Task: inverse folding
C-alpha cells in the first residue's frame, strides 16, 4: 500500500502531497522535511529506493521534480516505480510534454488526475487511455457548468437592463 | 497552459513565485490568508465561483507548508454544493487538508452518503474517491453496505465499480468486521471473473487484503487467480491499452501473485501444474532490455514470481533457478536490480536452506557493503548477517569490523549489534570473541550497549583459560591515549578480577594497574566511578602482602569519595574503606566472582524479539514463522527460572541503584541496598531466595560471599541441569529450581514496565517464563483503544486464562472476551476500549490469572491508562496564553503550591520530562529563564477539551524545591493535574513503587530545606 505521494522540486519546494495513511499536520511537515533532506541529497546513479523509518520510499527524478511514494517494506518496489512513471506519462499526455510550471499553475489538475490513478494507496487504473477519457469528461463538466452560468448571468444581465 | 478561467488563482501563484525571499513570501501568504478569512466571514456575499477560488488558494498555501487552520468548514461545505465544479473542489480539497481523524469530516458523512446512493455517476465517483482516500472507522460503519452494493451492481459502469472496490478496501482496513466472510467469498470469486481490467485490478487489491486476513474462506478464489495469471502470461484477450511497454498489465500480475502467496499450498495438481507453467515462463523469459521502464516492469513481475516460488518451494528445480537468477542480480551494475537481488536473497535464506549456494557469492556481497549507496549497503549487511555461520563467521565479522571504521552514523548501531551477535553466535574460539568485542568497543563505543560488554564478562568469568588473555588485552587497550568509557568499564572490571594473573609481566604490577586505571577516573561518569572503586578494592585484595604505598593511594581515593553526593559511590567508598582494613579477611570477602549460570544471550534474545514484533501479515513473514517455529523452540530452552535477561549481569557486578531497586520491589525483606547486610557473615539469601533474584541476593552487594555461598546451595538443589552442559561448579544456576514449585516470578520489573508504558504507547506490560503480555494503545481525545497481546511462550498451552478489569470510577473500560486457553506459542489479541469520564489519577487494574501445569499464577497489573494519555500537547503563543492565564483568577481553578524534595534536575531535563508527559513546554513565554511554562489539552467526557496551563518557577540555588502553578477551567482537573505533575517531579519513575507522597521519599543527600518561608524565598526570584 502506498502511504503517501510527494512531489518535491530540486529546491525542496513541495508541488503535491497526498496522504493515504493518517498523518497529522505536524507529522506531515516532519515527513516532508526529513525526506526532502534524504532524497534530494542522493547522488544520481544510486538505486531508486530509500529505507526510512521501517518503510520504504520509492522515488524517481524527472527533470527538476522528484516523485516519491512511500510503501511498506515487503511491497514490490519496481511495481511502484512504474506506477510513478505511469502517472508521469498520463500527466505528460494531458499537458503535452509536462513541465514543473504546468504542475505549479495547475496543481489542482495534478490532484484530480492522481485521484484517477490511485485510491486508498492502490493502483486504480492502468490504462492511460481510460484515465485520459475520464479526466476529459470531468473537464467538460466544469466547462459546461461555466457556460451555463455565463448564459444565465447574460440572461439576467439582459433582463435587468 | 493557463488555469482556465481562474485568473485570481494564477495571479496569486505568480506573485508568490516572484517573491524574492522567504520573508516576502510569508508576507504575501499572510496577506492572502487574511483576505480569505475576511471573505469567508461574510459568506453571504460570496459567489460559488469565489468560494471555489479561495478554497483552491487555501490548498496551494497549505502545500507551500503554511498552517491553514481555518476554512476547513468552507471546503467541507462545498461537498454538498449542487453543481459539479464546486463539488469537485470540495471533495479534492477536503481530502487533501483533512485526515481521517478530523472532526470536520463527520459533518460530511451525510452529504457523502447522499452522493454515493444518488443516481449521478460523477458524484458517486467523487464521493467514493474521498472515502477511499481518507475514510475512517465511522465511514466504515455507516457506508460499507452502500459501497458493497455499488461494487457488485450490474447496472454500474466500470468507472464506478473500480472505485467502489478500492473504497471498500479502505473501509475493510479500518474495520475488518464490515465484510461478512461467509457472504463475501462467493462474491469475491465472481469479481475475479471480471473482464474489465480496471475493475479487476482494483478487485485484486481488495482480494489481497481479504485473503491476507483469512485465507481459509477464499479457497474457491485460488483457481480464479491462476486463471488470471494464465490469461496475462499468454496475453490472451488483453486490450492494447492494458499492456505496459508490451507487458500485459504488470501491476495486475504482481497483485495476483501476491494474493497467491497467502495460500499455504496449491493442492489441486492440474491447477498447480498450470501455475508452475506460468511461473516457469516468467523465470525463463525475462530478459534484460534497454528500455528502463520495460525492464523495471518485467522485473517487478519476475521478483514477485520469485517470491511465489520461494513460498511454494517444493519444486526443487525451480528453486535452484531462482538462486541462480539472484546470484546474477547481485552482481549486476544496475543498482535497483542489485538492491532487490540482495533483498530477495536474504528472504530466501529465511525460507529454505540455500546457505551453501549463497556462500559462493560472499565476495560479491561484501563488495556491496562498500557501495556508495546506503540502501544497498543496508541490504548487503542484512544478507551477510543472515548467511553467517561457523564456517564464514571470522571473515564476515572481520569485514564488518573493518567497515565499522568508515560506516556512516546511520548504520553504526545496527552494524555494531550485528557484529556482536554474530561473534557470539559463531565464535570459533573464545579469545577471538573477546578480540572482536574489544575492537567493537574501541571503534564504536557509543553504539555498544551494556548488554554487549556484560556478555564478555560472563564469558571470561566462566572460562578460566580465557582470563589471562582477556586481562592482557584489557591492559593493552588502557595504553591507548583516548579510550571510550565503555572500554574503561570493561577493562577495569576485567583487570580488577584477573590482573593478578598478569603480575609477572612488565607494566602489570598492582601499583601500575591501579595508576593506569586511576588516570581515567577524572574523565568518566558516575556509574563508571562505582566500577573503578570496586576494581581498586579487588586490586588491593590481590596485592598480598599489602603494599603500604598502594594502600594509602587507594584509601586516599576512598576517603575522597566518602562524602560524594552520589549515594552509590559514597556507599562503596565507605564500605570498601572499612573492608580493606580487615586485612586477611578481605581475601574471603572480595574473592573472585563465581561462574555465571548459563543463559541465553540477551542480545540474541533481543534480536529475536524485534524480529517477532515486526512480523506483520506479509506472506513471506508468515511463511518464515511457520518454518522457524522449531528453531524458536530450541532457542527458548533456557534455565527454567526465567531469570531477568537483560540487566542480570549488572545486578551481579554492580549493585547500582536501578538494579537494586528491582530486588527491593520484589522482596522488601532483603537488604535495601543496605550497608549492614554486606558485612553480615550470614547471607540473607538462603532465607528467601525466589527464582531469578537469587543471584542478586547472593552477589548483589559486593559479591562478598561468592564461593562460600555455593556449597550450601548445591546441596539444596540436586536437580539435573537443563542445559546438560553445566558442571557442578554451576550449581548456582540450579539453585532457583528448588523454589520454583511455589512461585512463578515475573521477568523484569513490573513497576518499571508500567512506568515506561505511561510514557509510551506500546511495550511489554508483564512477562514471566510462560507468558508475555504486551500492550499497544491508541489515544484519541477522551477515548482510547488498547490491545492486550497475550503470548504463550511455551510449547504447552496455558489453561484457565482469565482477565478482569477493575476499573476506577472515572474510566469506562470494555475488555473484549479473553479466550480460556492460549495454544502453544500463540498470541491472542484482546482489544480494550477506554473512555475517560473525568479527570482522576486513579489507575485501572488488570486482574490476570492462568494455569500452567500445576501452577496457578495470578497477578494484578496496573494498566497504563493514566491521566497524561488523555492529553494532547498544544503550543500556545503569548497572545493566547496570558489572557487565559489571567482569566483563571485563583483557587479552585488555579492552584499554587511550593513543592519540596524535588528530584534535582536541570531545566532541560525537566522540559523533557514535561514533554514526555504530553505537557508541551512553551519556551519564551516566561521572561525569567529559570521558569518553565507548559500547556496541554485534556480530554474527558465531562470536561470535553480543556486547556491546561502550567507554570514552574525554579530556584537555581536549590534545585530540590520549586513553585508550581496549575490552571484549567475545571477545579478537579486543576487539582489532579497538579498532583500528577508533583508525583513525577518528586519520585523517580523507575523506583518501582507507585508514586509515593513526598514525605516517604528517601533523600539522604538532600539537606533539609531551611525553615524560612519558601514562598517568600521564591517570591524574591520573580
Result:
Amino acid at each position: 500500500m502506498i502511504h503517501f505521494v510527494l512531489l518535491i522540486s530540486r529546491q525542496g519546494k513541495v508541488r503535491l502531497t497526498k496522504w493515504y495513511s493518517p498523518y497529522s499536520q505536524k507529522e506531515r511537515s516532519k515527513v516532508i522535511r526529513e525526506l526532502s533532506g534524504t532524497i534530494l541529497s542522493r547522488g544520481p546513479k544510486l538505486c531508486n529506493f530509500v529505507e526510512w523509518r521501517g518503510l520504504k520510499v520509492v522515488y524517481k527524478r524527472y527533470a527538476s521534480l522528484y516523485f516519491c511514494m512511500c510503501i511498506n517494506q515487503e511491497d514490490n518496489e519496481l511495481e511502484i516505480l512504474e506506477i510513478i512513471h505511469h502517472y508521469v506519462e498520463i500527466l505528460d499526455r494531458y499537458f503535452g510534454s509536462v513541465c514543473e510550471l504546468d504542475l505549479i499553475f495547475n496543481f489542482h489538475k495534478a490532484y484530480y488526475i492522481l485521484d484517477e490513478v490511485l485510491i486508498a494507496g492502490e493502483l486504480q487504473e492502468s490504462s492511460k487511455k481510460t484515465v485520459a477519457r475520464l479526466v476529459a469528461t470531468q473537464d467538460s463538466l466544469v466547462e459546461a457548468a461555466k457556460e451555463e452560468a455565463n448564459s444565465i448571468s447574460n440572461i439576467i444581465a439582459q433582463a435587468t437592463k | 497552459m493557463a488555469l482556465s478561467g481562474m485568473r485570481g488563482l494564477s495571479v496569486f501563484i505568480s506573485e508568490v513565485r516572484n517573491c524574492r525571499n522567504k520573508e516576502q513570501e510569508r508576507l504575501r501568504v499572510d496577506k492572502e490568508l487574511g483576505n480569505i478569512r475576511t471573505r469567508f466571514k461574510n459568506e453571504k456575499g460570496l459567489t460559488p465561483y469565489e468560494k471555489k477560488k479561495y478554497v483552491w488558494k487555501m490548498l496551494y498555501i497549505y502545500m507551500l507548508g503554511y498552517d491553514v487552520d481555518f476554512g476547513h468548514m468552507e471546503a467541507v461545505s462545498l461537498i454538498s454544493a449542487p453543481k459539479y465544479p464546486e463539488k469537485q473542489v470540495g471533495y479534492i480539497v477536503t481530502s487533501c487538508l483533512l485526515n481521517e481523524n478530523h472532526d470536520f469530516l463527520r459533518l460530511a458523512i451525510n452529504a457523502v452518503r447522499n452522493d454515493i446512493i444518488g443516481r449521478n455517476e460523477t458524484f458517486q465517483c467523487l464521493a467514493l474517491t474521498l472515502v477511499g482516500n481518507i475514510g475512517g472507522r465511522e465511514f466504515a460503519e455507516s457506508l460499507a453496505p452502500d459501497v458493497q452494493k455499488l461494487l457488485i451492481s450490474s447496472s454500474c459502469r466500470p468507472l464506478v465499480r473500480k472505485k467502489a472496490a478500492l473504497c471498500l478496501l479502505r473501509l475493510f482496513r479500518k474495520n475488518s468486521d464490515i465484510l461478512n466472510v461467509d457472504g463475501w467469498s462467493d462474491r469475491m470469486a465472481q469479481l475475479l471473473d471480471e473482464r474489465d481490467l480496471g475493475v479487476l485490478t482494483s478487485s485484486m487489491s481488495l482480494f489481497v487484503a481479504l485473503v491476507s486476513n483469512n485465507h481459509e474462506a477464499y479457497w474457491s478464489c485460488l483457481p480464479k487467480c491462476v486463471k488470471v495469471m494464465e490469461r496475462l502470461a499468454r496475453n490472451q484477450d488483453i486490450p492494447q491499452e492494458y499492456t505496459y511497454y508490451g507487458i500485459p498489465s504488470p501491476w495486475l500480475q504482481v497483485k495476483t501473485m501476491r494474493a497467491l502467496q497467502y495460500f499455504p499450498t496449491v493442492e489441486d495438481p492440474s491447477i498447480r501444474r498450470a501455475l508452475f507453467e506460468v511461473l516457469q515462463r516468467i523465470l525463463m523469459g525475462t530478459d534484460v532490455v534497454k528500455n528502463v521502464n520495460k525492464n523495471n516492469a518485467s522485473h517487478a513481475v519476475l521478483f514477485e514470481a520469485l517470491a511465489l516460488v520461494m513460498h511454494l518451494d517444493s519444486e526443487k528445480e525451480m528453486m535452484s533457478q531462482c538462486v541462480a537468477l539472484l546470484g546474477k542480480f547481485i552482481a549486476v551494475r544496475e543498482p535497483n536490480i542489485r538492491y532487490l537481488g540482495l533483498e530477495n536473497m536474504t528472504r530466501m535464506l529465511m525460507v529454505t536452506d540455500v546457505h551453501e549456494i549463497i556462500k559462493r557469492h560472499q565476495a560479491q556481497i561484501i563488495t556491496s557493503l562498500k557501495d556508495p549507496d546506503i540502501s544497498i549497503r543496508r541490504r548487503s549487511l542484512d544478507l551477510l548477517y543472515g548467511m553467517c555461520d561457523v564456517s564464514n563467521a571470522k571473515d564476515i565479522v572481520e569485514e564488518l569490523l573493518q567497515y565499522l571504521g568508515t560506516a556512516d552514523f546511520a548504520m553504526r548501531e545496527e552494524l555494531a549489534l550485528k557484529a556482536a551477535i554474530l561473534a557470539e553466535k559463531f565464535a570459533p574460539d573464545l579469545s577471538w570473541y573477546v578480540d572482536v568485542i574489544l575492537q567493537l568497543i574501541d571503534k564504536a563505543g557509543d553504539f555498544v550497549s551494556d548488554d554487549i560488554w556484560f556478555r564478555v564478562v560472563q564469558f571470561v568469568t566462566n572460562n578460566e583459560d580465557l582470563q589471562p588473555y582477556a586481562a592482557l588485552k584489557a591492559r593493552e587497550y588502557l595504553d591507548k591515549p583516548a579510550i571510550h568509557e565503555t572500554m574503561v568499564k570493561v577493562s577495569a572490571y576485567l583487570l580488577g578480577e584477573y590482573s593478578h594473573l598478569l603480575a609477572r609481566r612488565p607494566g602489570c604490577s598492582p601499583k601500575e594497574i591501579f595508576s593506569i586505571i586511576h588516570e581515567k577516573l577524572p574523565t568518566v561518569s558516575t556509574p563508571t566511578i562505582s566500577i573503578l572503586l570496586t576494581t581498586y578494592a579487588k586490586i588491593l585484595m590481590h596485592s598480598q602482602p599489602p603494599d603500604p604505598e598502594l594502600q594509602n593511594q587507594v584509601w586516599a581515593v576512598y576517603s575522597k569519595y566518602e562524602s560524594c553526593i552520589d549515594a552509590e559511590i559514597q556507599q562503596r567508598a565507605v564500605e570498601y574503606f572499612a573492608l580493606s582494613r580487615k586485612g586477611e579477611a578481605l581475601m574471603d570477602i572480595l574473592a573472585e566472582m563465581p561462574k555465571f549460570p548459563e543463559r541465553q544471550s540477551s542480545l540474541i534474545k533481543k534480536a529475536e524479539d524485534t524480529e517477532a514484533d515486526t512480523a506483520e501479515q506479509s506472506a513471506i513473514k508468515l511463511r518464515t514463522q511457520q518454518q522457524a517455529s522449531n528453531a524458536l523452540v530450541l532457542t527458548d530452552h533456557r534455565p527454567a527460572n526465567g531469570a531477568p535477561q537483560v540487566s542480570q549481569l549488572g545486578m551481579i557486578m554492580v549493585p547500582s541503584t536501578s538494579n537494586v531497586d528491582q530486588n527491593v520491589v520484589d522482596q522488601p525483606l532483603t537488604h535495601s541496598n543496605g550497608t549492614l547486610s554486606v558485612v553480615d557473615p550470614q547471607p540473607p539469601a538462603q532465607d528467601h531466595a525466589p527464582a531469578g533474584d537469587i543471584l542478586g541476593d547472593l552477589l548483589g552487594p559486593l559479591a562478598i560471599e561468592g564461593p562460600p555461598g555455593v556449597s550450601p546451595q548445591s546441596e539444596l538443589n540436586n536437580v539435573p541441569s537443563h542445559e546438560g552442559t553445566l558442571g557442578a561448579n554451576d550449581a548456582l544456576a540450579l539453585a532457583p529450581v528448588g523454589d520454583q514449585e511455589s512461585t512463578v516470578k515475573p521477568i523484569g520489573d513490573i513497576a518499571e514496565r508500567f512506568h515506561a508504558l505511561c510514557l509510551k504507547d506500546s511495550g511489554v506490560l508483564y512477562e514471566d517464563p510462560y507468558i508475555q503480555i504486551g500492550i499497544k494503545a491508541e489515544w484519541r481525545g477522551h477515548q482510547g483503544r488498547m490491545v492486550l497481546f497475550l503470548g504463550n511462550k511455551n510449547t504447552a498451552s496455558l489453561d484457565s486464562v482469565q482477565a478482569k478489569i477493575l476499573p476506577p470510577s472515572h474510566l469506562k473500560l470494555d475488555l473484549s472476551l479473553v479466550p480460556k486457553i492460549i495454544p502453544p506459542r500463540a498470541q491472542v489479541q484482546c482489544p480494550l476500549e477506554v473512555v475517560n469520564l473525568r479527570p482522576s489519577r486513579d489507575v485501572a487494574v488488570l486482574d490476570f490469572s492462568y494455569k500452567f501445569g500445576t501452577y496457578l499464577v495470578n497477578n494484578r497489573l496496573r494498566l497504563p491508562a493514566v491521566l497524561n494519555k488523555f492529553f494532547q500537547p498544544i503550543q500556545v503563543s503569548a497572545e493566547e496564553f496570558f489572557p487565559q492565564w489571567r482569566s483563571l483568577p485563583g483557587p479552585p481553578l488555579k492552584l499554587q503550591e511550593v513543592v519540596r524534595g524535588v528530584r534535582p534536575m536541570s531545566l532541560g531535563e525537566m522540559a523533557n520530562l514535561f514533554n514526555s508527559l504530553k505537557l508541551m513546554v512553551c519556551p519564551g513565554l516566561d521572561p525569567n529563564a529559570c521558569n518553565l511554562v507548559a500547556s496541554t489539552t485534556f480530554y474527558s467526557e465531562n470536561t470535553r477539551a480543556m486547556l491546561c496551563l502550567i507554570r514552574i518557577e525554579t530556584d537555581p540555588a536549590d534545585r530540590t524545591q520549586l513553585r508550581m502553578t496549575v490552571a484549567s477551567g475545571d477545579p478537579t482537573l486543576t487539582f489532579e493535574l497538579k498532583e500528577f505533575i508533583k508525583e513525577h517531579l518528586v519520585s523517580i519513575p523507575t523506583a518501582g513503587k507507585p508514586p509515593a507522597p513526598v514525605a516517604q521519599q528517601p533523600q539522604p543527600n538532600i539537606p533539609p530545606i531551611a525553615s524560612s518561608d519558601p514562598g517568600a524565598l521564591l517570591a524574591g526570584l520573580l
Notes: The CA atoms of residues 181 and 217 of chain B lie 7 Å apart.
